[in-house]
Amino acid sequence: MILIGELSLWVALLMATWGTTVGFAGGFSRRAELIASAERASYATFGFLALAAVGLWTALLRSDFSFRYVASYTSANLPSIYKFTAFWAGQSGSLLLWAFILSGYSAIAVYTNRSRNRELMPYVTATLSAITLFFVMTLCFGSNPYERLDWIPPDGTGLNPQLQNPGMAIHPPNLYLGYIGTAIPFAFAIAALITRKLDAGWLSAVRRWTLISWFFNTTGIILGMWWAYVELGWGGYWAWDPVENASFLPWLVNTAFLHSIMVQEKRGMLRKWNVTLVVSAFLLAIFGTFITRSGVISSVHSFAQSSVGYWFLGFLVIAFAITVYLVSTRLHDLESKAELESLVSREASFLFNNLLLVGIAFAVLWGTLFPILSEAVTNNKITVGPPFFDKVNIPLGLTLLALTGIGPLIAWRRASLANLKRQFTAPVLAGITTGAALLAVGMRDVPALIAYTLCGFVTGTIVQEFWKGVGARRRMYKENPVTALLRLVARNRRRYGGYIVHVGIVILFAAFAGLAFKEEFDVTLKGGDTYEATDPYGNQWRFVSQGVSRYEELNRQTTAVLLDAYRNGKQVGVIKTEKRQYTDSRGVPTFQPATEVGIMEGVRQDVYVVLAGVTGEDTAEMRITFNPLVWWVWYGGMIMAVGGLIVMWPQAERRRAQAGYSTVLQPATHT
Amino acid sequence: MNRRRFLAAAGASVALMAISRSARAQEEGPQVNTGAANAPMESERYKPVRLEAKGPAIMDTNARDALEHHLHCQCGCNLDVYTCRTTDFSCEVSPAMHKDVMALVAGGYSAPEIIKAFTAVYGDRVLMAPPASGFDLAAWIAPFGALGAGIALVVLLLRRWHAPAVALVTIDPSTVDATQDEQARLDALVHRDDR
Questions:
Q1: I need a labelling partner for A58 at 20 to 30 A (CA). Which of A165, A346, A474, B105 fits?
Q2: Domain end point (choices B94, B114, B129)
Q3: Residues of B in contact with A10 (CB under 8 A)
Q4: Does the residue B125 lie in any domain?
């Protein structure tokens, strides 16, 4: 199987080359047999890359240390689940995962469009094959997972302990599914530009793919935050690290596109802008991969420095140049069909929403790249860390949050004063009430107060939208409130699914604002010692050390400290925090000691204990942190994912229509 | 070129590339770098920051910890001094920098003075954010400048797009030949987009 996998990688290279060549040739010459051949090649590429992936998994699970990759990322005593996930722990394995997912996406896109978008499909197929070809070439000639060692080591290096976590098992595939999802809209955009078929047709083809990309990017980022929080031990879930930023950039641009596409569908505006966003999301995904793999920017998450990053840089430059040429030669075809009539309109609010999302993306990109620029100009090394990103992005983020509440309240084209009064009264009151209540209970942190006031306002908007919708259904169909709510969402998934995503956003912002009240304490405790602290809610906590214990487990030596935790005099639990020294099958230490954070989770706050180290026999050095509202991040993320799924789900009427049961499609009501 | 010829040519190209590749060693490193650097303390990583004491301490522990959040640990971990020293005991750089901070706090120095002392020794790389001066001021200005330019562009576009005012014609309601029901349906259609 391993040999078949190795050979399949090379056959996939041929198939992708074939698909690219005959796809473009078929498109330009309009020869149906070439187009059909390119489409079959995309299925074949997927098949061969699947075999290549199965081959590598087989080598990993069998601990075949004759392969450099297997020896570098696994050891004989590594649990099987992590041998499986070691597939994406290193450079070449993760590149194979990229190529495999991309070929799978391509095959699905080709299959689902076998009777639609036929004028675009030759170029879509060829563009996707070209992207796959780049990845397979990188694998074959730059970073081959099937590279063999000259000798077979008795055991492998093992997997970095911080990757031995369920979060890391599912976070990278999710993120890759999101990143790679941007390739399909990009291919459609290139096809639409080549054929000059730049009406709304190509947009409807890419909307769902953008949603898929957005959905996986969202879940990937949230899972990555969770992994960083429970595994890295620095006390937070987001550090504005370059690699984190790289994952955030396509998300911001995709989010902007999912809003601006509505303006094009509804008003025929923002055509150039939408093409630019679709293309930018893909280029930023490739840029993120370049950052992660080139080592040009220092990051705690990056892969080992290698030449592969420069393959990506080359690909990025070529893709950028082609795109700029195509867009610049088709500007006339991208002229808007309508004009913005008023700044007080829904399309204007979407425009400002886009401006802010892209503005945040620019700020994040700028901050990420600025150390390189500064060093090039001034020859001085500088750091652009969380204080910069927080200062720049907090005002932009809060304005964006305000627009999340304003957008749905304003009518399309031009809002009247009466419309504004009617729509804004309740949400503004909700916001003011929230702010006043928090002020009354003693909250004095101004940014947090603004954030919670805006959260109240946006919540008011969403509740009002649901209230009106449910009320209308109850009046029209005499339904009970629950049935009316469920049917309201089911009948207009795009609009109300979007509002559910907004609920998730509000919860996330509330959680981020909670960080303003984080409390940290350096603690040194011997067995039996007590430490007392006050949390942000004013509760008195007492932590009693049960002492330090040391023991061995399957593939590690563990040093653990148990703390009895008391809140206002009542014991509420025991917190265990660990340092782990991982070893190979011969008991030889393999990596630096890893932190296993002790977390007492709660809806209001987490008590987060990190064992920094042990001095002497029994003295533990720890950091105890009260982290307010961290669970809200995970809840907010889950709600966003659910909202995204609802938006993505095909409408029943549309499914029936596609199956030929109905010939009449009602125009959808979009937000 | 028929399909068979194309495949033969592609196969030959791939074989040639594979041969040329075999001469090159792969540069891939052995492991993903996912944690703090934890590198041993080297002279270029840690540099002592010492000043003569000038009076009693004027900062409390909280202010000191807040200050350490603005100093970049030089071990290569991308974390600030406070977070690094309280996360991983194996880092030798952040505890050493912390000791210098404590000594300066005890010597009566304020937060800006301590930051200035660290910058004098390490340069601007010891700060967690670029200084708002010289070329690095661009880091702070550019995001807001770009956003301002974007807003200005939207306003300009709006002015360009703004259609010339259409003269409104006043109609006497009594002359409209429509039933009340027809008028209501017309109003509903006109205001459909407002929903």
A1: A165
A2: B129
A3: 14, 18
A4: yes
Q: Domain boundary at B78, B104, B129, which?
A: B129
Q: Establish, for the pair of chains A and B, how many residue pairs have beta carbons separated by less than 8 Å.
A: 230
| One domain, residues B69 and B118 | yes
B10 assigned to some structural domain: no
CA distance A279 to A253: 10
Domain assignment present for residue B1? The answer is: no
Q: What is the mean pLDDT of residues A494-503?
A: 95
Residues B177 and B105 in one domain: no
Does residue A34 lie within any of the structural domains?
A: yes
A352 near B CB under 8 A = yes
- SS3 of A557-571: EEEEEEEEEEECCEE
List the 442-471 stretch of A: residues with Cβ below 8 A of B: none
Among the listed residues B149, B146, B188, B161, the one whose alpha carbon sits nearest the alpha carbon of residue A348: B161
pLDDT in tens, A108-126: 999 999 888 889 999 999 9
Residue A188 pLDDT more than 80?
Answer: yes
- Assess whether A285 and A324 both reside in one domain: yes
Q: Do A304 and B31 touch (CB under 8 A)?
A: yes
Amino acid type, B137: L
Q: What mean pLDDT value characterizes chain A? A: 89
Lowest average pLDDT, out of A210-224, A543-557, A640-654, B167-181, goes to: B167-181
Domain assignment of residue A508, yes or no: no
CB contact at 8 A, B49 and B117: yes
The count of other CB atoms within 10 Å of the CB of residue A441 is 7
CB contact under 8 A, A610 and B128: no
* Residues A150 and A91 both lie in one domain: yes
Same domain as B97, residue B47: yes
| Domains contained in chain B, number | 2
Sign of CA dihedral A67, A69, A73, A78: negative
Residue in chain A nearest B32 by alpha carbon? A303
Tell me: do A103 and A219 sit in the same domain.
Answer: no
> Do A319 and A175 share a structural domain?
yes
Pairing of strands A594-596, A598-600: unpaired
User: Using CA atoms, how far apart are residues B10 and A15, in angstroms rounded to an integer?
Assistant: 10
| CB pair distance less than 8 Å for A592 and B35 | yes
Q: Which residues of A touch B121 (CB under 8 A)?
A: none
Spell out the residues 6+ positions from residue A283 whose beta carbon is closer than 8 angstroms to its own: A316, A319, A320, A323
**Structural domain range at position A83:** 1-159
What is the residue whose two structure tokens read 């001094």? B81
- What tokens does B9 get? 């040519």
The reply to whether residue A388 touches residue B140, judged by beta carbons under 8 angstroms, is: yes
- Report yes or no: A547 at the B interface, CB cutoff 8 Å: no
CB-CB under 8 Å, A239 with B78: yes
Measure in Å the smallest separation between the Cα of B101 and chain A Cα atoms: 15
Each residue's pLDDT tens digit, B12-43? 444 434 333 333 333 333 333 333 333 444 45
Residues A154 and A169 in one domain: no
**Residues of chain A contacting B146 with CB distance shorter than 8 Å:** 359, 362-363, 366
Write the residue in A10, A301, A384 that is nearest to B130 by C-beta. A384
| Cα gap A58→A417, rounded to integer Å | 67
B151 and B124 within one domain: no
d(CA A300, CA A241): 7
Inter-chain touch A355–B151, beta carbons under 8 Å: yes
Is residue A174 domain-shared with residue A146, that is, in the same domain? no
Q: A163, A72, A73: which is closest to B34 by C-alpha?
A: A163
A302, A362, A391 ranked by CB distance to B33: nearest: A302
Question: Does the structure show a pLDDT above 80 at A614?
Answer: yes
**Taking CB atoms and an 8 Å limit, are A388 and B128 in contact across chains?**
yes
